[in-house]
Amino acid sequence: MQGSRIAIAKTKQTPPPSARRAPSGTPAASGTPGAALEPGADASSEIAAAAPPVLRGARIIVESLIKEGVDLIFGYPGGAILHVYDELYKVQDRLRHVLVRHEQGAVHAAEGYAQSTGKVGVAMVTSGPGATNVVTGLTNALMDSTPIVVISGQVATTLIGNDAFQEADVVGITRPCTKYNYLVKRVEDLAPTIKEAFYLARSGRPGPVLIDVPKDVTAWECPFVYPDKVELASYKPTIKGHPLQVKKAVDLMLNSDRTVLYIGGGVVTSGAEREVYELSRRLNLPVTPTLMGLGAYPPSDPRCLGMLGMHGTYTANMAMAKAELIINVGARFDDRVTGRVDKFALGAKKIHIDIDPASVNKTVNVDIPIVGDAKHVLGQMLEMLPDVPPPPRTAWWAELREMQARYPLRYKDRTDCIMPQRFFEELARLTGGRYICSTDVGQHQMWAAQYYPVDSGRKWLTSGGLGTMGYGLPAAVGAALSGTKEPVLCVTGDGSFQMCIQELATCVQENLNLKILVMNNRFLGMVRQWQELLYDRRYSEVGLKYFPDFVKIAEAYGATGLRAEKPEELRAVMEQGLNTPGTVLMDIIVHKETNVYPMIPGGAAHYEILLGPEDDQDAQPRELA
Ligand SMILES: Cc1ncc(C[n+]2csc(CCOP(=O)(O)OP(=O)(O)O)c2C)c(N)n1
Ligand SMILES: [Mg+2]
User: Fold this and answer.
1) Strand bridging mode 221-223 / 54-56
2) Which residue in 284, 375, 444, 506 has its CB near the most CB atoms, within 10 A?
3) Class of the domain covering 7-28+41-231
C-alpha cells in the first residue's frame, strides 16, 4: 500500500490573495454567488464575455465539476458541506445528485459508475462521520485502480485542530488510502485543485483523490477561472514503453514456446482488449485473466484458459506453474494469483507491462519490466512482430488441452436443493454474460467469476484488491445510473448484502433497472469454507443465526421480491425476475455447505491446488446455524 500513493512536488500558481473577498455573511446572505452568475446561468459564456465572474467557493466547486464534464454525483449532505448542497440545488438541470443512504454507498456507487463508463466517478460527503465513512471505498478504489474524486466538507479553517463538532483529520486519515488528497485552505485554490484532482484520478494508474474543503472556504469568494491544463513537473506517467525493453520482450516471446498471457485490470483500464486479442492470435498464446481482468478477453475463445488465482481453473494455474514465459499485462502479481511467492512460476521468464512503476518488481522480480500504458506498449509489440503464421505450440497446447479435459470446472448437481453452481449456470444461460454484473465478496463472487461469461471488462464490477463485502449493491447502483439501457445484475451473498442493504432505498428512489440475486447459503460461506478445510470444521461465528426475510425486505423498500428454493423453481424465478421492471430481488436458497473449487490455499504453491471431490461429499447437509 505504501508504494501506491504518488508524491508530487508542488509548483502551484494561485491568484494573489487580494483577489479573495471576505465571506459575505451568513449562508443565506451569501446565497447569491457573485452578482455575475445567476442560478442556471452558464459560467463559461460569462467568462468568455468579460472579467471572470466572482463566485463563492461552493459555486466554484459545482462549476468546476461541470467543467470537468461531470453530470452525476453521489452523496450525502451535512453541516460542513451545506453551502455546496445549496449550489447543487441551483444547478440541478446541469448536475444531477443522487442521494444514497450511507456514504460508503456513495463511494462504491462512484466506483461502479467509473468502472462501467471509464469516466471519473464523483462522491460528495460532509465532515467528520461523513468523511470517515468513505475510507473503505477509497481504499477499495486505490486497490482496484478506480478513478474517483471525493469531495468532503470540513469544519471552518478557524476551527481546524479544535476538536470542533464533526471534525476529523480527514487528510491524515485518508492519506494512505488515496492516490492523492488535499485540504484546500484558500478559495483561489479550489478550481486548480479540482482540475488537478481529476487529472490525477484518471491518469497513470487511476485511483481515488480526496479534496477536503473547509466550510468557510466554500463561503469565500474569488474570480472563477477554470484552468485548461495541469502542469505537474514531478508527475508524468509513462505511456510509451521503452523501445529497447519492448524489443527484448518481443525477441523473448518469439523464442519461447510454453508461454502464457496473464492479463489484469490494467487491460480494461487502458482499453487494450483488442491488442491483447491480437497478440494472443498472432502468437497463438493461451490467455488467463485475473479476477479484475475478467471480460478483457472473450471467455468463449478457445485460447482462454479461464480465470487464474486462488479459485481459478486448474489449467490456468498449472499453465503458470509450468510455463517458460509469462507475459503479464496490467496485473500486479497479487498474492491471490502467485500463491507462495518463492515457489511461483520458478521455470518462467517474466515480462511485466504496467503503467505503475511502483508495481514492477514489487512482489515478483521480473526479467523484462516495461513501464507504460498497456494499449500503447502492446501496440508497439504488435508492430514489431514479424508477419508470419502463428506458431503451433503443439506440445504446449496438447498439455493444456489434456488438463482442461481432465479437470474442468465441475460439480455434482442435485435434485433436492439448488446447487450454487447451478444458480450461476442458469444465470449465464439466461443472460449470455451480456449484462453488467456486480458482485459482493465471498463464495458467490468466485462462482460468478467462474461461471458468468462476462463479455466486457467494463461489465464486470467486483472488489478484487480489498475484497469489500458491501460493495456489490452500491456499485450496481452506480452502473445502473451510467446510462445503460439493459438491466444491471448484482450478485450478492446473504452476508454481504446486509452490509449495504440500505441502498435498496436508492435503487427504488431512482427506479433503477437492477436485478439483485442473493445467493443465500445462510452462511458467511467463504469463511465457513476455510474453517471447514483449514480449521477442522470448527465453525466459529459463520452461521448467520438470524437472517431477515429478504423478500419482505425488498417489498418494504418498494422493490419486487421473489424466492426460489427448489431446483425446479430456479429458472422460472430468474426469468420472472429478469423480466420484471424496476428493482427486483431474487432470494435464491442454495445448498449450504458447498465449497468453491479449485482452491489454492493461502500461502500454498500452484501445484498444491485442491480439487473438488468428484462425488459431492457434502451430500448430507449439516445443520449449523
Ligand atoms: C467488510 C468485510 N468484512 C469481512 C470480510 C471477510 N469475509 C470474506 S468472505 C466473507 C463471507 C461472505 O458471506 P456472504 O456474503 O454470505 O457470501 P458467501 O461466501 O456465503 O457466498 C467474509 C466475512 C470481508 N471480505 N469484508
Ligand atoms: Mg452466504
Assistant:
1) antiparallel
2) 444
3) alpha beta
Cis, bond preceding 77 (omega within 30 deg of 0): no
Q: What is the pLDDT of residues 479-522, one digit of tens each?
A: 999 999 999 999 999 999 999 999 999 999 999 999 999 999 99
Q: Whole-model pTM?
A: 0.92
pLDDT tens by residue, 344-391? 999 999 999 999 999 999 999 999 999 999 999 999 999 999 999 999
Q: Determine the distance separating the centroid of ligand 1 and the alpha carbon of 441, expressed in angstroms.
A: 5
What residues does CATH 3.40.50.1220 cover in the chain?
243-406
Q: For residue 440, give the ligand 1 atom closest to its CA.
A: 15
Dist. CA 267–CA 476, nearest whole Å = 21
CA atoms within 13 A on the CB side of 573: 23
Strands 72-75 and 96-99: parallel
Q: What is 243-406's CATH number?
A: 3.40.50.1220
Of the residues 12, 38, 165, 402, which is catalytic?
165
Whether residue 108 has its Cβ less than 6 Å from ligand 1: no
Give the CATH superfamily of 420-596. Thiamin diphosphate (ThDP)-binding fold, Pyr/PP domains (3.40.50.970)
Where along the chain do the CATH 3.40.50.970 domains lie? 7-28+41-231, 420-596
